[in-house]
Amino acid sequence: MVYKAEKIVPYAANDASKSVQVEQMFDEIAGKYDLLNHTLSLGIDKRWRKKGLLTLKKTAPQTILDVATGTGDLALEAYRLLKPRKILGIDISEGMMNIGRKKVAQAGLSGKIDFEWQNCSDLQLEDNSFDAAIVAFGIRNFENLDKGLQEILRVLRPGGQLMILELSTPEYFPMKQGYWIYSKLIPLVGKWVSRSHAAYSYLPESIAAFPQNAEMAGILKKNGFINAQYQKLTFGVCTMYLGSKIQ
User: Fold this and answer.
1) CATH of domain 33-168+210-244
2) Are 90 and 67 in contact (CB under 8 A)?
3) What is the pTM of this model?
4) Nearest to 161 by CA among 246, 232, 86, 49
5) For the chain, what are the domain ranges?
6) What is the DSSP letter of 110?
7) What is the pLDDT of residues 71-115, one digit of tens each?
8) Of all residues in the chain, what percent carry a pLDDT higher than 70?
9) What does the alpha-carbon distance between residue 129 and residue 127 come to, in Å, rounded to a whole number?
């Protein structure tokens, strides 16, 4: 099945695949990404990350796969909160991961958190090799959502947990109307700070097109995850999805 979000690309006039375009986009904005990310979310993204990661605390995962790791913020917070033995952050943007590598080195966590170029639709990782997988604000960038989820499921150990955070569109007044206005400002702010209009026009378009709430929970179930559920955060601006691999 082809989902609407898979057709949304950063550069509409470009014939390259979505994954190639997303890689190019993030390489271009890598230097400004953290500033824009925290600014556009008013800093609330840090609270979302913490809440999502704490859902994994009771299972004490020792090996964690951070999919679409970007600049490594989720991986760093995962290490701080969960103290696993190893975290592997994967992404298709070396520009983003290079910033993550510097942050990890500054935190004295080199060797605890590693980064590796991987396409989530074809992971070069062993079956049943991670206790948990985490994704923050990157799953809407997947070129093939079903395949990406199937690959994550494959590399999780039996009983392994998946935690996803993704931006979403509020459904009710007044947040729905406020978010509509805010989404119109995002491209303007993004262009001003990063000089990339395409990247921050793509952001609200990809959020609106991505499967949300019960639909996304159903997609997790369809692709083999059990106990799939979702929770709206900050009045629906962000949604957390949880699922696990059968024992």
Assistant:
1) 3.40.50.150
2) yes
3) 0.94
4) 246
5) 33-168+210-244
6) B
7) 999 999 999 999 999 999 999 999 999 999 999 999 999 999 999
8) 88
9) 6
